[in-house]
Amino acid sequence: MDEQPKIIKQGLSLELASFEPGWVWLVGAGPGDPGLLSLYALHALQHADVIVYDALVDLKILELANKDARLEFAGKRGGRPSPTQPDISRLLVKLAGEGLRVLRLKGGDPFVFARGGEEALALVAAGVPFRLVPGVTSGIGGLAYAGIPATHREINSIVTFVTGHMAGGNLPDVIDWEALARTSPVIVFYMPLTHLDDIVKHLMTAGRSKDEPVAVVSKATTADQRVLISTLEECSQAVRESRLKPPALFVVGPVVRLRDGLDWLGATTGKRLDPNPLEKGESE
Ligand code: SAH
Q1: Residue 89 pLDDT > 60, yes or no?
Q2: Which of 120, 201, 222, 260 could form a disulfide bond with 277, CB atoms 3.0-4.6 angstroms apart?
Q3: What is the CATH number of the domain that holds 73?
Q4: Measured from the CB, is residue 29 less than 6 Å from ligand 1?
Q5: Domain co-membership, 163 together with 276
Q6: Both 50 and 170 in a single domain?
Q7: Is residue 174 part of a domain?
């Protein structure tokens, strides 16, 4: 009974691929909580010579880097212009060319609204070998820390991830709002805050109910996580009043109601969970 599971007793004796000099590892750091790092991400932090990281990477995660690793910031800071994507790709190629183990660390997953594909293609063009290490994307893991599942059998067999921001800063004009509103019971928006009013208007015009439950999850999985529950109609105002800060996610759909039953994080500080969160309000 008291025996620990074998893997802990023996320590980590897994055979992980080794991080070779001259390689770039493009790694997802997850949404913030260091506990959500993959074993490969931790391995890379421990063995990298240089770490090129984004603004979204939590400082607690960088603290796990080996002491000799050089840290290169590649995000926006204090109004100064951020390095362009070609700048970053060139930097990765140059560092790998110097024979370094280059860790390119991105928040969440590198292939989800993170331009990881572009960086990897630049490596391919330059003949630099690379490994891709997926991370927990905030649109799934961040919601889970708010007690909101991306799918639930009684609710949705489709979930859609949408970026609220294009490269130029506008709401993507390629979105077919009617199709989205009609076919996807649950919609998760990344980078939603700048254009929240427009997003809400588009969804209601396309037929989504003004009373539909929505949530905004800010700084998910970090100590500063905040969750705002509202309705489609009222959320813009509520977000303005709440002063919620990015990074944040906006989730639309009935899965939001499950939070009353699944806010496991809230339960750690005494919140009572409702085992039947979907039954409420059904007689209304
Ligand atoms: N590759 C990342 C997404 C990068 S786009 C991923 O897979 O999660 C940046 C957007 O991600 C933010 O504007 C926000 O919408 C979302 N995001 C990333 N980390 C977050 C966090 N800890 N809490 C809430 N949203 C987050």
Answers
A1: yes
A2: 260
A3: 3.40.1010.10
A4: no
A5: yes
A6: no
A7: yes
Q: Report yes or no on 187 lying in a domain.
A: yes
pLDDT in tens, 34-79: 999 999 999 999 999 999 999 999 999 999 999 999 999 998 665 6
- If one counts the domains in the chain, the total is 2
- Whether residues 88 and 204 fall in one domain: no
For the stretch 198-234, pLDDT in tens is: 999 999 999 999 999 999 999 999 999 999 999 999 9
pLDDT given at position 283: 44
Which residue range forms the structural domain that includes residue 241? 139-283
Residues 171 and 221 in one domain: yes
Within a domain: 1:
no
pLDDT digits (tens, 9 = 90+) for 126-169: 999 999 999 999 999 999 999 999 999 999 999 999 999 876 67
Indicate yes or no: pTM above 0.85: yes
Is the same domain home to 23 and 120? yes
Q: Is the CB of 30 under 6 A from ligand 1?
A: no
Mutate which of 58, 118, 138 for ligand 1 pocket (most atoms within 8 A of beta carbon): 138
Ligand 1 pocket member 189 (CB < 6 A): no
Q: Give the confidence band of 10 by pLDDT, cuts at 50, 70, 90.
A: low
Selecting among 191, 219, 260, 263, the annotated active-site residue is: 191
